[in-house]
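Hi W.,

Here's what went into the run:
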Amino acid sequence: MNGNQIIPTYTLNLEGEPCPYPVVYSLDVLEKLASGEILEIIADCPQSFQAVPEEAKRMGYVLLCEPVQEGPIIRFYILKP
Amino acid sequence: MLSSITSLYHKLFDKFWNPVLVTVIAGVLSALYFGVTQTYWAVTGEFTRLAGHIMSWFGFDPHQLSYMKIIKFQGSPLDRVDGWVVSGMLLGALMSALLGGNFKLRFPHQKRRIVQGLVGGMIAGFGARLAMGCNLASFFTGIPQFSFHAWLFMLGMATGSYVGVKAALHPLLRGKPRLEKASPGARNMQSSRSRVQPIIGLLVFCISIGLIVWEISGGHSKLGLAGLFGVAFGLLIQRGQICFTSAFRDLWVTGRGTMAKALALGIIAATLCTAVIIYLGVPQKIAWAGPGALIGGLLFGFGIVIAGGCETGWMYRAMEGQIQFVIVGIGNIIGAGILAWGWDHWGLFASLVKPYPKINLVSELGWSGAILSTVGLMLLWYAFASYWEKHVRYKANQKGQAVLMQANVEMKEIS
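Here's what came out:
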């Protein structure tokens, strides 16, 4: 999917949240989404840059594009299939 | 020339580094550091000395405390090897965060995180000093010293972090994330980075090198070299996001074993290199192997999970501008100071530490026995992490949930 066409359903803003909360929150929210919904995750805890996509992919969710990094902030777009 | 420098810069600072590579390099460097300074890479001893300075501002003479004698409390941080390594680490982490454009002042949205940071930091600082070191001196650099107390500390830390995860996911602490309906429209998908931060990072680099050169040319080569190693350690832990806390915590939360496996390999590298240095004649550092190390590990493991980061973790995160971790650091210093006080006044030394032997695995098992058992322990831990990764995920799958320890966040916005 072309990244520019992504229109997320929900935004989970995790700015300022330290580990382990970004991963736990993200997986919890993804679990409750309906199929086909897209979650936008905004995080700034560098540890979550690796852990969030890794754990989301493992659970069968789809990372729609490369994470978008704006300096210290990162955005992920994850689809619940 | 210029283009090759910029391409090297992008290669090094656009992404975080592979944790296995970083821990192995850190392991080798920590052994070299031991060879050069004859003391191991450690930070909490220096935090305790900082607590000593604070006590003297309030009119209490810290020299009366026997703990301060054990850790050779004298002079100022700039007269001490540990002081230079801690300052170097802070500078190195700051430089690295700036060069990578990762600096940002971050305040926790949930006020409870501040309390968590302070209390968790205090518990961790207290526990670390009860065991004579945090997950550096009693773990990452303690296990390679062949001191059995580090094994007890590791066992305590693994157990303590498990309890810590349970507490961190308790409704009182976990709080609620901010989930909102997404604002409409497509998103800008261009990654961007700060142009100013790398320049300030370069400035921090020049200042650090200047200080080190000045100290070495002033005849204090050991202190200068400690500073240089500190800068390298700071760079490594920030670039690799080396969070010792996550080595255990992630296993208990989602079953992620990435950091646990990386650390096991890093400690093996450190063990082999440290063995050579000890064999060449640098004396080992052996601490009391008793309940002090075990209970200290338990408290430490619990504290670091509540706080969100251990001693090395808060150092680089504070330098990335995460305010919560500045508070964790303050907590650490307070906790270490309380332990130094309680060592005499509450009889902690007499009851939990002194009656127990200092067990040196080299004199107990011989060189081959010491090396084989230490490397064996790390391989066992590596195998455990791999097994646990699969086990947790299998169990969670069977229950039809993402992770074994669920936070069960309520989401009114969705339902």
